[in-house]
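Hey,
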Amino acid sequence: MTPSTGGRAYRAWLLTLLVAAYACSFVDRIVIAIVGQSVIAELQLTDLQFGLLGGMAFALFYSAFGLPVARLAETRRRTTILSISIGLWSAMTMLCGVAQNYTQLLLYRMGVGIGEAGCTPASHSLISDYYPARQRASALGIYFLGVPLGTLLGAAFGGWLGEMFGWRMAMVVVGAPGLLLALVVWLTLREPVRGSADVRAPGEGTPPLSAVVRHVVGVPTLRHLMVACTLTTLAANGISTFAPVFFVRGFGLRLSEAGLYFGVIMGVAGLVGLLAGGFGADLAARRDQRWYAWLPAAGVLAAAPLYALAYSQADVWSAVPLIMLAAVFLSTYPGPTFAMAQNLVAPRMRASIAAILLLLMNLVGQGLGPTLMGQSSDLLAGRAFAGGDYRQTCVDTRPDADMAAACARASATGLQQTLVGVAIFLPWGALHFVLAARTLRRDLEHAGALE
């Protein structure tokens, strides 16, 4: 069935704006990590406190509001929800630049999470009503290009702005363009007919959330998909939150250099990996639908030893090629994964299934990942510090020049060991992708999604 609300040119415009919105969200999400060392120094934070800013403060509210907003997206105009969400998270990012203390900054980061909760469920549902099942991994792979594009822009410009004008000005400047984008989305996007790109009939009414949850629990492929994405995201988000900090702390780069290195790595690697994962899975699935799970499994598994080896290096030039290759492999999983989820549910469950998947990925992955990594980094830094109480000497007070050098070495060691260790979650995630493949064809057949 052909979507009745627009031709190829309009679909390209819609997908372009959805990519721009997702990129905007990642600019606002990643900039706190890029200027992180400056924030830590000015507000005298521990790595655990900073991990909460990049992790639980964002993820808890992102997750809590994701499901209610997704339920609205099943019955209300998704384009309106998307526009309001963009404006809210952009305004909250700008407010982070005027925070006077850690508590205020924490609250504004919670606001960013609330705003971003409406982006992905509405966007996934829109894409599924414009692209048939055989094209959804490709379309979602393009949508997920917002991650590397947003990371590249946020890292490069955020690092430069942070070094030239301070981290506060960086937050204000990167948040402002989202207000204009929200207006463009509001004025130019149209609401499609639900289920118009599906082979099966869309059905009547919106099932209650309890029915969606029962469906997820009752479908083995979805269960393993949830676990796989949660474990993979835990490692990926932990690494992305602290990698720019380690570039400054461990490799001795300036803030602008760290931002540029991280942005180019994630931008180029994400671009290659997401396109390879989305288009590769759609192409391979013409022969066997299980490639929607096999391809992410292979990519996630390959990334694990590369990340561990990369962060064991003593200099940035040895680490960067390994990090980039690892990021290429890791970036193959989002397109096929979310396409599987969309294909396994009815049209009026799609925003909800995206929100449930994101709930687990963000609450555990985005929330616990950086938080646990921050706690691990503090603990391991304390063990590496030979000058007494690490927190009292290095964090709570301003150490003298000699002691500052010892503090810097200990903090770099603790973070390096944490970045190496977190890669262990990736093989565990790959295992569940393999288990999802075992039941995928049967579950797609039951869902009526095999074409």
